[in-house]
Design goal:
binds 2-oxoglutaric acid, about 45% helix, alpha/beta
Length: about 375
Amino acid sequence: MKVGILDSTLREGEQTPGVVFTVEQRVEIAKALSDIGVTMIEAGHPAVSADIYEGIKRIVKMKKEGIITSEILGHSRAVKRDIEVAAELEVDRIAIFYGISDIHLKAKHHVTKEEALNIISETVSYAKSHGVKVRFTAEDATRADYQYLLEVIKTAKDAGADRISIADTVGVLYPPKTRELFKDITSRFPDVEFDIHAHNDLGMAVANALAAVEGGATIIHATVNGLGERVGIVPLQVVAAALKYHFGVEVVKLEKLPEVASLVEKYSGIPMPPNFPITGDYAFVHKAGIHVAGILNDPSTYEFMSPQTFGRNRDYVIDKYTGKHALKDRFEKLGVKLSDSELDQVLAKIKANPSARFYRDVDLLELAENVTGRILKPRPPE
Ligand code: AKG
């Protein structure tokens, strides 16, 4: 299966409310993304501000020096001045977007369908004339008139676009429709490479990205931690894990995902919820007695893949849901030997205090000391 990742943390990700990256942070994020092996980095929209321009300049320099290996894209409206700004930065590819649904044509661009086709054609060929690769993004493609979308694709392709991105701008696709759409456009345009840009408004961005790939898309747009406008787009760590699980494809170095996730969490100031897949604190933490008993026998009972694949460790918490297996295991790990009946008594004490959220090791030792009347010395940490 041919599929790669375009990471747009520095462009779409910075469109998250409240997020701004400094030049230094942009460079550091780009390097981290290149190190884990993303195929393309959408480094920003340089016409927006001087810091984005400067960040892209530094990233392109690192690309030229071989420090960054991913393809570098500069984002651009379908406007000549934007294209010139991106071109002077010598990015590998200019990504031009234009809203093509009736809503966008009418309420945003104020042009007819015919005028829009002319703008797309002119700007794509203008970008091409600068000797760069060009992606054209059909913004709001999934709410556009389908026959018109086909015309747009043909126009952008004929004008020289090397790739075409289908943007589900307001996140309304659902997987069967996505698969069908990509199957159809890839069979009509066999010489065009397609991207999927899926927003997560209905929580289906990852599922839509996978369905698009099944339909023939070869690049998935993602951001670290799923940042982006409103509720964001495909989270890199989740789609990478899903591609590995479902298709056996490793699009990035999976074990490095937590590092990149933490870096972007720190610089974006957007905290990762503990229950976030793959990189959230609780992604591989178990709780119910029956679950913990299962994972202690065979972790695959309650884990779709090993946490080590993603540079994580498994753990479990102790509270009123805990069973005897977990408790025994926890005391063994602490180097404390309790009899069966002592374990039962500790468990009874835990169950008698149902509002306690977590039992730390020191709390468990204290309970065990109360039950046994012995001073219990835990094994010193290694
Ligand atoms: C969107 O439609 O949500 C976009 O961000 C389009 C811009 C692009 O992917 O080039």
